[in-house]
Structure to design on (769 residues):
């Protein structure tokens, strides 16, 4: 079978799985899977840009996804006026001071001669840190004291939530630039650990800096780009149309909302996919792959490898940031406590590897397929376990334990899938051409 | 101004906990560093290997406890550790046979092995959760304290108490013994020397007749032992929860990298650097400073450099600072 046919067949299978869910379980679950699958596909596209195009090993995906989520809050929530007047001025002064200290340290490091500069930089940083905290802490307590049960943070700009998607990408890109500047000089394994750590730092900041996004108190009730179900149910026109189609208004409204999200996500995915395909086929894409396959040779040909790596690292991270903003919009809330590397970094990697690294369609396929399995392994495992334990006496210790542990089948299955694909089809389901 | 009380407070809240934690990290980092030095990849599954080993130990400990066994003031888990090591060794050798060996034979790029280890991580994590669940398990028994705060105060007449938990003492003593054994093995025995030779220069070692499969086998056995011991000590000292062990991967890698990947001495140094900075930066220094400074200068706030929630972040900030200035770590590790 040719490549095109193979791709079409695999996509048809995934579509069949999702439609099958609609028939067997419910159309609501099918659309839920589809929507998160589309978001996952965008994340996988971002990782594929870095790994598949350029061979950069980034295990900090979670951090960029979380930054996208942060952008959603900063863009769409209404500003908290009282908090702004209570301490915003001092807060921004503190942040500027912090930046000035770091900038000063960098200047000293590059200007002053060896021997002395280490101590000077350390002194500037330590003194700067205490100065920063002296301005920062009172500002933060003032902001967090404003109605902590409901706000206690600065709020956002009150703009339409869809604007947060590009902003999330920009925010992730800015942070990726900062990281890339410092970490891209490192060797592959060291870079991996550095990105893993930076993702943890980003999550730690999101969890603890309550003035920014309420920390673990979560921001809930984010504005939506689609209508609320209850408004649809109260709209006589909508109810009438639902009745024409023979669906009850409640189901119709939930399906309508989910379809709305699905369409918006699909549009973003298609745009990014087209751009990624154009990039892959352009001279730039060929250069990236040449660098990936033989860095030394590419360098000898006069390619600026470090610069290209930085470029693709920023682009890939920005795509992850867009996906993160989309996901938080879909959830309607930002919950920093739920970000875990197993789910937001390593699972995305499974998607890219299984789908086919270096192939954009492969990444999208992997995103949709692995997300489907991630959701469905539990009910399938449950069914299998019920079958396995059907012979056992009711109330036996082993039976209860086995039925309980079904929820852990997910990780096991994902690991097995990853290893099997790596072993028998190391280039993924849709290999790079 | 009260120097003695300040020293005791410092020891109680910083030195002793950080030493115990540092020893646990160092043992974990030694495992990571050995795999990096000999099998030449960063093993992302190491945290979960530790969890698996601890789980084996816990299951045997429970068995021994039901038999009514007791070690007096020491935790029974110490007796169970050898069984835990056997279980973990069986698991890692099986993994090596069905997973890693194939890629070793193909001589794939190290980064592929890292991705493979992510798959192993998923599976090990799933198996551990499958068997023992996700809840916190407490398996420490024996005496809780070697010295209690109150006894110490009565003994010395100081205001400040000093408590040493049994598990902290056990951790440090065990770690010293294990590290001494490991270094004796690496430096004095024939197999240990061949491992170092293999780590330094694979081709040369092969030429001089060292069997690679044997080196790999011994490495996995040592790693299984280190992971089980480190995990059990951590579990005794804090508590056992599979997810915590997955998170331990981060400070352990930070320790191994700060020291220089592939360098055993570096792993130990890195473990303590990370542990002391984590504890020191997140500790509220108010009490110690209160003793040291005259009353007029006594601090108002907690004098905490960063909130305790940032402790994972601390290890990485240290990691990045070290890497910026010494790209292969303090002890000049290798890079593949």
């Amino acid at each position: 079978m040719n490549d095109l046919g193979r791709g079409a067949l695999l996509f048809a299978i995934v579509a069949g799985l999702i439609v099958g869910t609609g028939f067997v379980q419910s159309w609501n679950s099918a659309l839920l899977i589809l929507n998160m699958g589309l978001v996952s596909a965008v994340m996988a596209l971002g990782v594929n840009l870095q790994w598949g195009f350029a061979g950069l090993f980034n295990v900090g995906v979670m951090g960029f996804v979380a930054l996208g989520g942060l952008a959603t809050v900063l863009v769409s929530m209404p500003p908290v006026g009282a908090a702004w007047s209570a301490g915003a001025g001092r807060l921004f002064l503190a942040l500027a001071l912090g930046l000035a200290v770091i900038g000063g340290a960098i200047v000293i490091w590059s200007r002053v001669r060896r021997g002395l500069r280490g101590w000077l930089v350390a002194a500037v940083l330590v003194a700067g840190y205490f100065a920063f905290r002296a301005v920062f802490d009172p500002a933060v307590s003032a902001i967090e004291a404003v109605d902590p049960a409901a706000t206690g943070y600065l709020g956002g700009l009150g703009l339409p939530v869809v604007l947060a998607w590009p902003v999330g990408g920009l925010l992730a890109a800015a942070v990726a630039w900062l990281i890339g500047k410092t970490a891209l000089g490192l060797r592959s394994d060291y870079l991996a650990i550095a990105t893993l750590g930076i993702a943890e730092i980003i999550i730690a900041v999101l969890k603890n800096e309550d003035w920014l996004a309420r920390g673990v108190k979560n921001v809930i009730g984010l504005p939506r780009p689609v209508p609320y179900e209850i408004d649809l149910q109260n709209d006589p026109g909508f109810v009438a149309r639902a009745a024409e189609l023979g669906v009850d208004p409640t189901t119709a409204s939930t399906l309508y909302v989910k379809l709305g999200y699905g369409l918006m996500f699909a549009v973003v995915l298609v745009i990014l996919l087209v751009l990624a395909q154009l990039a892959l086929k352009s001279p730039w894409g060929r250069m990236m792959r040449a660098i990936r396959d033989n860095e030394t040779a590419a360098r000898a040909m006069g390619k600026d490898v470090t610069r290209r790596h930085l470029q693709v690292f920023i682009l890939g991270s920005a795509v992850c940031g867009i996906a993160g903003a989309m996901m938080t919009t879909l959830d309607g809330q930002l919950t920093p406590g739920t970000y875990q590397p197993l789910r937001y970094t390593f699972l995305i990697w499974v998607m890219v590897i299984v789908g086919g690294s270096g192939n954009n369609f492969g990444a999208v396929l992997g995103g949709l397929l692995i997300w489907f399995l991630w959701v469905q392994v539990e009910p399938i495992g449950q069914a299998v376990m019920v079958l396995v334990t059907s012979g056992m006496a009711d109330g036996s210790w082993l039976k209860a334990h086995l039925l309980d542990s079904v929820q852990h089948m997910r990780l096991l299955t994902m690991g097995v899938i990853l290893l099997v694909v790596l072993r028998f089809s190391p280039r993924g389901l849709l290999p790079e051409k | 101004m009260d120097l003695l009380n300040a020293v005791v407070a410092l020891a109680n809240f910083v030195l002793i906990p950080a030493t115990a934690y540092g020893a646990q990290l160092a043992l974990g980092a030694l495992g990571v560093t050995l795999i990096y030095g000999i099998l030449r990849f960063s093993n992302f599954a190491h945290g979960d290997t530790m969890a698996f080993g601890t789980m084996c130990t816990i299951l045997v400990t429970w068995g021994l406890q039901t038999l009514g066994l007791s070690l007096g003031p020491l935790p029974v888990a110490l007796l169970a550790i050898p069984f835990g090591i056997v279980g973990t060794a069986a698991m890692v050798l099986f993994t090596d046979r069905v997973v890693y060996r194939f890629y070793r034979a193909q001589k794939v790029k190290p980064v592929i092995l890292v991705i493979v280890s992510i798959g192993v991580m998923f599976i090990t994590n799933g198996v551990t959760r499958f068997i023992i669940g996700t809840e916190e398990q407490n398996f420490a028994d024996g005496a809780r304290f070697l010295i209690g705060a109150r006894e110490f105060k009565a003994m010395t007449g100081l205001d400040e108490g000093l408590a040493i938990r049994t598990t902290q003492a056990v951790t440090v003593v065990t770690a010293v013994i294990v590290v001494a054994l490991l270094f004796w093995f690496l430096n004095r025995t024939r197999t240990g020397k061949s491992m170092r030779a293999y780590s330094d220069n694979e081709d040369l070692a092969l030429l001089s007749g060292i069997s690679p499969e044997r080196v790999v086998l011994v490495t996995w056995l040592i790693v299984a032992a280190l992971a089980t011991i480190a995990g059990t000590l951590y579990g005794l000292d804090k508590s056992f929860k599979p997810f915590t062990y997955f998170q331990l991967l981060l400070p352990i890698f930070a320790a191994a990298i700060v020291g220089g990947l592939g360098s055993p001495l570096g792993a130990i140094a890195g473990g303590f650097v990370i542990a002391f900075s984590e504890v020191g930066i997140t500790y509220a220094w108010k009490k110690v400073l209160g003793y040291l400074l005259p009353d007029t200068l006594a601090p108002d706030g907690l004098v905490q450099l960063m909130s305790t929630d940032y402790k994972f972040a601390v290890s990485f900030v240290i990691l990045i600072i070290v890497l910026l200035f010494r790209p292969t770590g303090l002890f000049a590790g290798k890079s593949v």
Remarks:
- Chain B has a mean pLDDT of 90.
- Chain B touches chain A through 50 residues (CB under 8 Å).
